[in-house]
Structure formats: C-alpha cells, structure tokens
User: Fold this.
Amino acid sequence: MRRLNPVDISLYFILGPDHWGARDPAWLVREAVAGGASLVQLRDKRYGAAATIESARALKAALDGTGVPLIVNDRVDVAMAAGADGVNLGREDMRPLDARRLLGPDAIIGVTVKTIAEAEAVDPAVIDYASIGGVFPTGSKHNPEAPIGLDGLAERVRIIRNRAPTMPISAIAGIDLANAADVAAAGADGVALVSAVASADDPRAAAAALIDRIAEGRARRQPDRKEAAS
Assistant:
C-alpha cells in the first residue's frame, strides 16, 4: 500500500553546508517555509554520514509542526537514521525500487531526470515525484551536461505525463525570480532551487515572490498542460 497524499512540489527548497554559510540552517528553513516552501531537501556533499545525519535531524526538528517534509539527497542510510521523510535519487544512486523496499510505502521517493531515457523510465508505481534538470546553467551544482532549456523541460514533462498524468514534476537548476514563471508555463508544477532563497537577504519574502511567479506561469499554460497537471 502506497502513501495516499501527493507531494506538494510547488517550491522545493534545497540547502546544505555549501549553501547556508554562516547562517543558521534551521532559521533558513523556517523562513523559507513561512514564505511558502512546500518541500525541503538536505544536500550535503561535503561531510560524512555522521555529520549529515545530525544536520538532517536538526532540519527535521526545525520543520516540526509545519507539515513540510524533509528529503535527503542521495543517502538512503542518512534518511533512515535521521527519520527524514524520504530521499531524492540520481542516476548513480540506489535504484528507486531498492529504496522503496528499505524505506517502506509511506516514504517520499523522488528522482532527478536529466535525459529522455530517464524520463521514459519514470515508474509511478515506485516514485512520488520527478525533478527535471538542469534547465539553466547554475553555480550551485556541477552539471557536466549542457542545460536542457525550456524546450527540453517541456519535452521531458510530456514524456512523464504520458506515463504518470498526475505525478508532481519540478524543474531544477538556475531557476530564480526572473525565469520561474517561464518554467511553470513549460509544464513544471513547481521549482527546485537553492540560491534564490538561501542567498536572499529576506528568504521568506524571496520564497513568497517565487510562489507568485509559479502561479503566474501555471496560468499561462496551454489548456492541455493545465489539464495534465490538474
């Protein structure tokens, strides 16, 4: 039996030690959520399991009572040890089916989709959301592949929608206030981002402004895209 409630991917806030700098990560997360962030991911490429587990526990505590889930990037073991709500998996990580077996039916399992083949392989019986990218150039993460752009995003959205019409889909990489509406208009239900919130002087206001842009972009969609995402 799988979890019944769909994942709200509207504003997917990603952060880690490379992003929060001297700021308190718990404060950053609370401010982002107050502004509208609906999903939070810990991405820690710097430290080992023990430190990452402690970071995940701190963020989970900061989210307590908000109803916003905490996702751990890559590390199923960290998610299990910290009591996180799920994981986001890439092409070199554990297979989603194996993660589902370990984490159980209630966990949130998302995948990062880069290629057409990966979009075609999305299995709605196993995963809860797909994050498509990189859409634009970004300094938050090294992406050896060229950005796919808005046309590439729209193509991958169509492929996934054919397999899973109601699956939440986010777009990732280089997304900010200037292009969030265009991304949503191209078919994404929401955006996954780092710097546009983590580096903002006022993370709460930045998150709220992004929510408005996403709604603006969704309103610009063609009727078939609106219907597919509803």
Notes: DSSP finds eleven helices and eight strands in the chain. The mean pLDDT is 92.
